[in-house]
Design goal:
The chain is of the alpha/beta class. It has two domains: 205 residues, FAD/NAD(P)-binding domain, CATH 3.50.50; 160 residues, D-Amino Acid Oxidase, subunit A, domain 2 (D-Amino Acid Oxidase, Chain A, domain 2). 28% of the residues lie in helices and 26% in strands. The strands form three sheets. Strands 1, 2, 8, 9, 10, 11, 17 and 18 form an eight-stranded mixed sheet that branches. The protein has an eight-stranded mixed sheet with strand order 5-6-4-13-14-15-12-16, with helices on both faces. Strand 13 and strand 14 form a beta hairpin. Helix 1 packs across helix 8. The protein is globular. The model has no long low-confidence stretch (mean pLDDT 95).
């Protein structure tokens, strides 16, 4: 049977989440006249992107993330001008609450990192922090740092901003097109086989989130990441949750929170994070049961820790439960770039719960690398080969990545 040829492109991107859309935006912006095709088997940004808490954290303990996030902020400003619309990004700042000696030391290092990257940051009193966030009990805090330029956004809207601008610039974005397999000639990627036929390209970029290890395995690569569940709750509305209050990181409770239209959105790092083989995730995760009890058992395990800072958690109503998969790694770093020995295949994968924030930097980096130009960012911490040979579908690896999320204390 003859296989239908659906076209030829300079670049084909597998996955229409925020990474795929950001790559298309930068590629079309910086390479006028070149053709990029983005393939999404469902709707754009319908999986991990739309389920993200979307803290646009700039200042982090991992310095390699910071330039990527700064690029995202720049991209937002540029796209708002291009579209003549506001993303309505909420720059409310971030409170970092340290209530132990270990976390105080972490906070002091973080404030030095802010200074290093010329980001405004200062300490505030416990009383002022409580005034800013009336729900926040600060009695046990030793030090509280405030980083005023941090923001959050609607992640789906950001993803579609990238896509809309990319289409205006000439990107070919196709929804409802599923990629079945890579087309390889020995160790060279030359295109993709979809349910409708083949698409050939000079470069193939895998940006398919939780499912990326399946495609990587077709090229003989054990991609070092695993789908690990992230989950958060949104409370009922209350006067103790001002719409303009800051986001809050509570590392001593392994929790974070941000305002959500008069409610509070908060997430935890449960003691036993849930991970699953990419092979066991349906193509449409709306049909996947992330938690039969809507995270109640996980929340009950840590609720006493959280209540030290958020006492109302015991009796405030919880209106919504949201869960999704992020690609986690044991060291908490992204897994992306190229693999020596495999030509014309790039991996924009392993978001580690930071995909929304770093999307601009990731998009710009892959747009440049796809054209054979120098990556403007340092990806050395994200090296796909840093773990050696691994089985991304084996239980040992999945548990190792899940454990990393359980122990995560930063934003």
């Amino acid at each position: 049977m003859e296989i239908k040829k659906l076209g030829k492109a300079d670049v084909v991107v597998i996955g229409g989440g925020i990474f795929g859309c950001a790559i298309a935006y930068y590629y079309t912006k910086n390479n006028p006249g070149k053709k990029i095709i983005v393939l999404e088997r469902n709707e754009l940004c319908n999986s991990a992107t739309s389920r993200a808490a979307a803290l646009m954290t700039i200042v982090r303990s991992k310095r390699s993330y910071i330039p990527l996030s700064l690029e995202t902020y720049k991209a937002v400003a540029d796209m708002e001008k291009q579209l003549g619309e506001s993303l309505d990004m909420r720059t409310v700042g971030m409170l970092h609450v340290a209530a132990s000696d270990a976390r105080m030391k972490d906070l002091e290092e973080l404030m030095e990192i802010a200074k290093e990257f010329k980001q405004p940051a200062h300490y505030i009193s416990n009383e002022k922090a409580h005034r800013m966030c009336p729900w926040l009990k600060t009695d046990e805090a030793i030090k509280i740092g405030f980083i005023p330029n941090e923001a959050y956004c609607d992640p789906y809207l950001l993803g579609t901003f990238y896509a809309r601008c990319a289409k205006m610039q000439g990107a070919d974005i196709r929804q409802g097109v599923e990629v079945k397999e890579l087309i390889m000639e020995e160790n060279n990627a030359i295109g993709v086989n979809t349910v409708s036929g083949n698409i050939y390209a000079d470069k193939v970029i895998i940006a398919s989130g939780a499912w990326a290890p399946i495609l990587a395995a077709q090229a003989g690569i054990g991609l070092p990441m695993a789908p690990v569940r992230s989950q958060y709750w949104i409370t009922e509305k209350s006067g103790i949750f001002p719409v303009d209050s800051p986001m809050v990181l509570l590392p001593d409770a392994q929790a974070y929170a941000r305002p959500e239209g008069g409610s509070l959105l908060f997430g935890i790092r449960e003691s036993n994070s849930f991970s699953v083989s990419p092979k066991d995730i349906p193509s449409d995760i709306s049909h996947f049961s992330f938690s039969p009890d809507r995270g109640a058992a996980d929340l009950s395990e840590v609720i006493d820790q959280l209540a030290r800072f958020f006492p109302k958690v015991y009796d405030i109503g919880l209106k919504y439960y949201i869960a999704g998969f992020s690609g986690y790694t044991p060291d908490g770093n992204l897994s992306m770039g190229i693999v020596p020995g495999i030509t014309n295949l790039l991996f924009a994968t392993g978001c580690v719960g930071a995909g929304i924030s770093v999307s601009g930097g990731v998009g710009r980096a892959f747009a440049e690398m796809a054209e054979g130009r120098h990556n403007p960012f340092d990806f050395s911490d994200f090296d796909i080969q840093r773990y050696g040979k691994i089985d991304p579908f084996g239980n040992e690896w999945l548990q190792k990545c899940a454990y990393a999320r359980s122990k995560k204390v930063s934003g």
